[in-house]
Design goal:
It is built from eight helices and two strands. It is mainly alpha-helical and 229 residues long. The protein has one domain. A hairpin with a 2-residue loop joins strand 1 and strand 2.
Length: 229
């Protein structure tokens, strides 16, 4: 038969098959589309933004202890710690360059000698302080390693940026004293939080590291040679 009868109407067979196949195609296409579910969770949530160096530095300067577990466990945060110590080194270099009773040569390599010495002293002091804290805290039961200790202590150097104002006449010496005590407080807090020890126990490595790296080393390498006192 070439024709098909439906409801008293005669249709040619070829047109009927074409219409039937198109109808099936439309139904299959619609059935393959996944209907969205209103309460379906998002499989690709946006990752939270990591705080910047400035944010970490402000929180460290205000004695916020919640940042230090991240610095102990995340190796990539070493750049933030290095940046904080570097800013302190530059600020100390500016203070040395424009303070003191001995004039600094204005030409040649000798003009940057105080800057290099000051910057290097801060970097060496950072490593010394981190080692002292790591060694003493390990005796207290902490399992922190040297790199984690450096990261935790490095970000706590953020108050050192205010050393740039220590070159102001008449008040510079007082600002240096304030920043030095501030550093002692922030790094002691960092040692306590990173090693999970009490603040009273953290005072021991905090003060010893401060005395060795910030007072004795700084006095021997920077303050005395450039007559800053």
């Amino acid at each position: 038969m070439n024709n098909i009868t439906c409801s008293g109407i005669i249709y040619p067979r070829k047109f009927t098959l074409l219409a039937f196949s198109q109808t099936n195609l439309i139904v299959m296409t619609k059935s393959t589309k996944k209907s969205p579910k209103p309460n379906e969770p998002d499989n690709n949530p946006q990752q939270p933004r990591s705080p910047s160096l400035v944010e970490y530095g402000l929180r460290a300067a205000t004695l916020d202890s919640s940042i230090y577990p991240a610095f102990r466990s995340k190796a990539e945060l070493v750049l933030h710690s290095l940046g904080s110590v570097a800013v302190t080194g530059v600020s100390l270099s500016i203070w040395v360059q424009y303070s003191g009773s001995n004039p600094v040569p204005s030409g040649g390599l000798q003009s940057i000698y105080p800057v290099l010495v000051s910057f290097s002293t801060v970097m060496v002091g950072w490593m010394m302080w981190a080692f002292v804290a790591k060694a003493i805290c390990n005796m207290m039961g902490s399992e922190i390693d040297f790199r984690s200790s450096m990261r935790s202590i490095g970000i706590a150097y953020s108050p050192g940026v205010f050393l740039v104002f220590a070159s102001i006449p008449f008040i510079g010496s007082y600002l240096f004293l304030i920043v030095s005590i501030w550093l002692l407080a922030t790094i002691t807090r960092a040692i306590s939080a990173a090693n999970n020890v009490s603040l009273m126990k953290a005072i021991i490595p905090g003060f010893l590291g401060w005395l060795m790296s910030w007072i004795l080393l700084m006095g021997w390498m920077v303050i005395y040679p450039f007559a800053l006192v």
